[in-house]
What we know:
The chain is 29% helix and 43% strand. By secondary structure, it is α+β, with helices and mostly antiparallel strands.
Amino acid sequence: MNNHTISISVTNEPGVLSRIVDLFSGRGFNIESLTVAPTMDRAFSRVTIVTQGDDSSIEQITKQLNRLIPILKVTDLTIAEAIETEVALIKVHTKDETRAQILNCVASTGAKVVDVTDKIYTIQIVGDTKQVNALMELLRPIGIKEFVRSGKTALSKNVSL
């Protein structure tokens, strides 16, 4: 079973996301991450779902998604060349002896400190899953207080998709 990133273009109307999620749960698919936002034309939205499955089961769910009326286009970005990214915010406990270490972790991963208090640094990283996970592992021994990530967003490099 491989991770698959599925991009779905839909009309921006109530109930569309619920129908998509119902289709996944009704077929026994787990959604690893889900992001939804309007496109440049606010009449449409883009749904990006990361799920696991073999190629034939992903093909089956893609065909079933294409049958839903508010769905305009479904693309398995896993088989296309795609740019994938996510955002994470991480609150880290700070002490005088760990501040330099935290800043070194931030600098080495391309992250940035977006908020500072005397006890906590809030760090933002934008990158692929490996980059986010790498920063988490660097900061874990220092003491992560809170962590949240957006889920994957993706865009095909291919214009014709």
